[in-house]
């Protein structure tokens, strides 16, 4: 079923990016997907996004909703009818909005877990942390806005990293059933990215030794987008192949 297109303002989108050993990330992916590689690494991370004015495209801004949200993401590619497609696989979505936890997978694609967010933000500084109510995920990011990208081993400059993430506008999210992935595409006519320097970046998702052996997932860089008008289009669900037992890896449907 195609769900309605949503309009919104991306008030803040902080992308916290990790370079990851490909074998460690590959085992988290459904069979149809494979990691995109940059400089020999897989690319994964956390999207910490505050959305404002979220509403159906036909509705006025005055009825729009506002929420803090987060997604753990893996840059992936897959074979489509017209060749290789690129986007992100999202094993986990979290939100501070109870409405989003109810509406995700019903009114719009993407099932969410409820979380408690703490945010301190100025023009130059950002501190975002959250803990999910099921205590499965804890994240803390402290960063300052910078003029350029520094110390990244994945990308040589801001233009290169901006182009990479702009190509990943399609996102496919894990679902509870494990039989399909919910799909959504971000569409914006004004793509503007600035660099950040992270003083602290922690996530229990990437620091879980059962998921990533020590050194397999390392912080690489952070990016910031602010005040971007955006539309969110639902995509056809992507079937998930199961093994002979009829199950998919548990990490692939977190």
Mean of residue pLDDT?
91
The CATH class designation is: Mainly Beta
CATH domain fold name:
Acetoacetate decarboxylase-like
Measured between the Cα atoms of the first and last residue, the distance is 23 Å
- Describe the main β-sheet briefly: 13 strands, mixed
| Helical percentage | under 10%
* Second CATH tier, the architecture: Beta Barrel
* Total helical elements: 3
Contiguous uncertain segments of 5+ residues: 243-248
Rg (CA only)? 17 Å
Overall shape: globular
Full CATH superfamily name: Acetoacetate decarboxylase-like
Tally of distinct domains? 1
In sequence order, what are the helices and strands, one letter per element?
EHEEEEEHEEEHEEEE
How much β-strand is present in the residues?
Answer: over 45%
The beta-strand count equals 13
Instruction: Provide the structure class.
Output: mainly beta
Short description:
This protein has 254 residues and is mainly beta. 8% of the residues lie in helices and 53% in strands.
Describe this structure in words.
It is a single chain. The chain has 254 residues and is mainly beta. The protein has a single domain (6-237), classed as Acetoacetate decarboxylase-like (Beta Barrel), CATH 2.40.400.10. Helix content is 8%, strand content 53%. The protein has 3 helices and 13 strands, in the order βαβββββαβββαββββ. It has helices at 22-26, 98-103, 158-166; strands at residues 6-20, 34-35, 37-38, 41-56, 65-80, 83-95, 113-121, 125-132, 138-146, 170-173, 180-187, 194-203, 217-239. Strands 1, 2, 3, 4, 5, 6, 7, 8, 9, 10, 11, 12 and 13 form a 13-stranded mixed beta sheet that branches. Strand 3 (37-38) and strand 4 (41-56) form a beta hairpin. The protein is globular.
């Amino acid at each position: 079923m195609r769900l309605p297109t949503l309009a919104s303002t991306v008030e803040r989108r902080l992308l916290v990016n990790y370079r990851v050993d490909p074998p460690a990330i590959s085992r988290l992916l459904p069979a149809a997907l494979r990691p995109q590689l940059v400089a020999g690494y897989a690319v994964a991370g956390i999207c910490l996004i505050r959305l404002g004015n979220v509403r159906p495209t036909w509705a006025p801004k005055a009825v729009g909703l506002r929420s803090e949200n987060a997604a753990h993401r893996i840059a992936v590619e897959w074979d489509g009818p017209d060749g290789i497609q690129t986007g992100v696989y999202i094993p986990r979505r979290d939100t501070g909005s109870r409405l989003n936890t109810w509406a995700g997978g019903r009114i719009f694609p993407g099932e969410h877990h409820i979380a408690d967010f703490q945010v301190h933000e100025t023009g130059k500084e950002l501190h975002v942390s959250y803990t999910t109510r099921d205590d499965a995920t804890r994240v803390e990011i402290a960063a300052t806005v910078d003029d350029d990208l520094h110390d990244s081993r994945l990308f040589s400059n801001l233009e290169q990293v901006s182009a990479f993430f702009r190509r990943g506008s399609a996102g496919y999210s894990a679902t509870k059933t494990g039989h399909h992935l919910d799909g959504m595409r971000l569409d914006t006519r004004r793509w503007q990215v600035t660099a950040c320097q992270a003083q602290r970046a922690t996530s229990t998702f990437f620091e879980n030794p059962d998921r990533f052996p020590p050194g397999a997932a390392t912080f690489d860089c952070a990016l910031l987008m602010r005040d971007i008008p955006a539309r969110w289009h639902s995509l056809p669900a992507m079937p998930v192949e199961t093994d002979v037992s009829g199950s998919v890896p548990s990490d692939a449907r977190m």
